[in-house]
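For the sake of transparency, this paper describes our internal protein records without simplification. Such a record has a labelled line for the sequence and another for the backbone structure tokens. Nothing more is needed to write down the fold, since each code stands for a local backbone conformation. For reference, a complete record is included directly beneath this paragraph.
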Amino acid sequence: MLRIARLIVAAAILLIVTPPAKSQLPFYTDDEALAVVFYVEAPTGYTEKQLGSGLTDYWIYGVIQKSFTKKTVGRLNGGILFAGDGSTGLIGLHSTRGQIFTGGGSLTKDITPKLRLGAEVFGAVTNKFKLSKGQLEAQVGGNYQLNERLSLAFGVLGGRFAASPRAGVLIGFAYDFK
């Protein structure tokens, strides 16, 4: 139930801004979007039995999206975990209490109407900037649309530093409940 509450809190605070094409800011067009989220994750688990941390996480992050062509989209994101437990956050970076800085970028391209391929780089570091406790990952993959609502997702990934997987393969399905 708390997971649903966290999702509702995050969704309620989500601010998506797409300025009009005639905006005074020259770098905004109809092909760009900006999202900013303040996220509060309530503590879960039962700390007496060492299930969960009992700490509340406070995150803020943003995403910028830009369409370079009708088939190519780039995204940049960054965030800060201000307080809470880094081992239960979005990335699982084990840290002492304090700030964790995250950032990433991706590029996707529609190869055919059914096939989209992409690449992504993501990283995280603690407020003490110890790379031995950091995370750096790269992933390439895509999805293939099987029908109007179901797609096959696939990818390979690799990482560096303590909190990253060295290598991995991803495969799964995505279903659109619209």
